[in-house]
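Checklist before submission:
- one chain only
- standard amino acids only
- sequence pasted in full

Submission:
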Amino acid sequence: MKNQKNILESMSRAAFAAGCACIVAMLVLTLINIALRACLGISLRYAAELSGCLELMLQESSKSLPGHEEACQHLLEVVLIRLGREQDMSFSGDAPGPRGSRECELIRRYIDNHFKEDLNLDHLARLAHLNKYYLSHSFRREFGTSPINYLISRRVEESRFLLRKTDYSLSLIAEILGFSSLSYFSQSFHRVEGISPTEYRKQNRKEP
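Returned file contents:
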């Protein structure tokens, strides 16, 4: 009976050791994945948390203090749960999931309806309840441009109409469309259209 107990204990330790080795390998892969996906907004604090759990588990195992096996089991469960969450994100592919697509569409519609207002990436991210870097990455994948560039393009599109159809000054148009300054409006317009607002007005002005 005693021999059987010893055998079971040895098998348990071996299984635990194998589990630790597996966790180490998974952790390394996860850390690499996190580094590669930093642009998606995954916090690097996640890696520190997993490393901390692993270090505690190794310390408990090496010191063999009373209760160390129970402590290691609890830490192992924590690491497995966190790794499971990360793998759900990692193996879903680079394209944003249904939620990401839905939120990007929401932000696009919001910009279409509010592009004259004072908008920035932080504000848009709060509306979508997403990390701003993840929002920017997902929005670019969905629509081929960043949220801010899309915002600028909508403002420039509206400015073309005002330049053709009104006598508004460039400063007034910039103010109406939410540009922070006339120079920023002119720079943005030139970047999108390839010519200045004044040149565009001259070329496209419709005489009454």
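Reviewer check: Residues 45 and 51 are 10 Å apart (CA to CA).
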